[in-house]
Amino acid sequence: MKAGFSVNGFSDHLLSESSAGGQTWRTKHLMEEFFSDSSQWWDNRTNKRNPTLPDLRHRSSAEKALWIDSRFHPPLVHVRVAVMVQGQEQGQSGFTTPEISRNVVRVEQLWQEFFLDPSQWWDTRFIKKNPKYPDFEHKSTHEGLWIEGWLNPPWVKAKVATMALGRVQSGSELRSGVPDSLGKGVNVRKLCQEGRLKEALHMVELMVQQNVQAPIKAYACLLKDCARRRALVEGKRLHSFIVQQGLHSNIFLKNTLVNMYAKCGSVLDARQVFDSMPEHNVFSWTTIISAYANHGQGEEAINLFKQMQQTGIQPNKVTFIVVLKACARIPALEEGKKFHLDIVKSGFESDVIIGSTLVDMYAKCGCVEDARQVFNNMHERDVVSWTALIAGYAQQGLGKDALDLYEQMKQDGLQPNIVTYVVLLKACASIVALEQGKHLHLDIIKSCLESDVIVGSTLVDMYAKCGRIEDAREVFNNMHERNVVSWNAMIAGYAQQGLGKEALTLLEQMQREGTKPDEVTYLSVLSACSHSGLVDKGQHLFDCMCKEDDVIPTIDHYACMVDLLGRAGYLADAEDFISKMPIQPNALVWMTLLGAARNHGHLEIGRRAFDSVVKLQPEDAAPYVLLSNIYAAAGWSDEVAKITKEMNDAGVKKMPGCTWFEAGRQVHDFVVGDASHPQS
Questions:
Q1: Strand duo 136-138 + 144-145: pairing
Q2: How far apart are CA 642 and CA 620, in angstroms?
Q3: Helical (H) or strand (E) element with 517
Q4: In what order do the strands lie in the sheet with 136-138?
Q5: For residue 504, what are the contacts with CB-CB under 8 A and spacing of at least 6?
Q6: Cα–Cα–Cα angle for 136, 166, 172, nearest 5°?
Q7: Cα(226)–Cα(221) distance, integer angstroms
Q8: In terms of DSSP H, where are the helices of 497-534?
Q9: Is residue 67 a contact partner of residue 11, using CB atoms and an 8 Å limit?
Q10: Start-to-end C-alpha separation, the chain
Q11: From residue 330, how far is each of 174, 210, 289, 335, 588 by CA, in Å?
């Protein structure tokens, strides 16, 4: 029979009953000593393997030992000891009675929180294999609760059993295995489908901790959700789980990982996973090619496409679409033509999506006629095909043809989409076709697309560039939603009309309403200051752009500052500003200074600006014309003749001027020296 004290390493059950009274006294004395300062005692209850060994042993005196179930204990000892945390490592500080009391209170609070809102807790009973893991874990604080916990209030087990969280099983039943539904990843996929990514991730993490194999389909579902949400951090966690569970060689998961990293913008990680794959299929190649193409690295996308062909893997329809888009962005016309031949050989040319992508590629590469030929040869055309060709004409300046094509599109019974309207409105703005723009506005209203923020912003831009600033402001005021593009369009409209104060007032309103200005905003307001002669305000805004809004000035911002100073007549300051620029000035900067020198008749600065432009753009006729105008205004006819000779010797030719005139919703274009128009 156990007692509470050991002598020379032997427990008191070896002692005779005649010494029981003395043992009771000693045990009571030791228990009082223990409860007065429990930090001096080791808790061996969990670690001991032999029941004859003591539950509690004094740190400095090995002879002092206690057994909790000893018959020599004084009353209420079991109650006081029962509130201690079973198996808690004591360390140097141990645990004190006040600390135990606080733990009891906290556990009861947690159970009350649990029953108040169980949805805030993970139910881990069905996946944990180690009893030390909690039965319930809080989703935010990660505090744990054990159904069999020592600190639990007496009413906990009965209340848990009545809840719809599942039957409270015994410890052996809980640790007997994982339910089939969880092993198949049903719960993980369900959480993923419900958009509860963090919860699904936590469940997978618990499965990994318990050495439970998470299904490949569950991982794939989560990786796709990470790709959709652009959740790179969560995706990397999943990648680590996949490696831990030995699934990193699975080609399906590898492809999904490449796609996740690519969609999350981490092309380097995507490439590392791709390069680590022992084999690739067409999906692997298409995914990595798409990653480079979509992140502005079209040359590498094209190189990878060629490598894929060299391995003998045939591109599918999606691969061709991706590489054609890469060619369009660079642009890479010759490569695009080669891929066009490959498409014909593969039998994909009749596909409407392939056809539309080819039209777009040729148009963006500047070959509108080739784009039109592909378009004409298409057996089937959709709104994307028409929009691609319309955009091609609009981007090449020819805008009148884009509007004519729009009329043909409507005659074929096709309804334009948002992209079509945006392209057409930009075409109207480029040729100042106000009546056509108004007509498009009516079509947009009929199509119930006026509330779209992109369409609304483009309407503002169209009206402003056509000189109807009041109409632009009316559209702007009626927009239900505005983004930075909307604000920029309206501010730019004021700037173009020389309404600097109105542009600055709108900038202040923009900031008050919580929209942060970007680099385009500052280009517009600097231009507005330039056209309105607000030099000091412009210089202040240039400083604010860098210091307050963290906008890094581009070459266009520096050109605006040169225009601001030069237009106001501060040409020497403008030239000094250029000399102190932290980046190399381009032809635009020098042309801006040359234009200011022409306006103010400054020969010396004009000549220096001319020399700098010609070095950068020797084929451009504009600097020759501007310098010639400076000399002509000064009456230096000999210098005018020299400039003309220099221009001819360099083989530079001035492009003929072109203008558009709108009459009765029809746009007429006129070119200098061309009398082919019936009303020229």
A1: antiparallel
A2: 17
A3: none
A4: 121-123, 136-138, 144-145
A5: 525, 528, 529, 534, 537
A6: 75
A7: 9
A8: 500-512, 519-532
A9: yes
A10: 123
A11: 60, 50, 14, 10, 22
pTM of the model: 0.64
Residue 666 vs residues 407, 428, 475, 674: alpha-carbon distances, Å: 11, 11, 24, 19
What is the rounded CA–CA span in Å between residue 652 and residue 644? 10
For 493-503, how does the pLDDT look when each residue is reduced to its tens digit (9 = 90+)? 999 998 999 99
The strands making up 41-43's β-sheet, listed across from edge to edge, are 41-43, 56-58, 65-66
Which pairing describes strands 56-58 and 41-43: parallel, antiparallel, or unpaired?
Answer: antiparallel
Structure tokens at 673: 């020296």
Amino acid type, 361? M
Backbone φ/ψ region at 398: left (φ over 0), alpha (ψ -120 to 50), beta: alpha
What percent of the chain has pLDDT above 90?
A: 54
- Number of residues that this document lists for the chain: 680
Do residues 597 and 628 lie in contact, with contact meaning Cβ atoms separated by under 8 Å?
Answer: no
What type of residue is 486? S
Candidates 259, 300, 254, 305; CA nearest to 276 is 254
Q: For the residues 600-613, what does the mean pLDDT come to?
A: 94
- Got the DSSP string for 201-223? HHHHHHHHHTT----HHHHHHHH
Q: What is the CA radius of gyration of the chain?
A: 39
CA–CA distance, 106 with 152 (Å, rounded to integer): 10
* 619 and 588 Cβ atoms separated by less than 8 Å: no
Question: What residues contact residue 157 under an 8 Å CB cut-off, 6+ apart?
Answer: 147, 148, 168
Q: Six-digit token pair at 504?
A: 């600055």
Q: How far apart are CA 437 and CA 459, in angstroms?
A: 8
Cα–Cα distance between 48 and 46 in angstroms, integer?
A: 6
Q: How far apart are CA 196 and CA 219, in angstroms?
A: 14
SS3 658: strand
Q: Encode pLDDT of 98-147 as tens digits.
A: 555 667 778 888 888 888 888 888 887 766 667 678 888 888 888 888 88
CA distance 44 to 39: 13
**DSSP helix/strand/coil, 122:** strand
CA distance 377 to 336: 18
Nearest to 343 by CA among 366, 370, 372, 314: 314
Q: Which residue has the tokens 């199509």?
A: 447
Q: Is 276 helix (H, G, I), strand (E, B) or coil?
A: coil
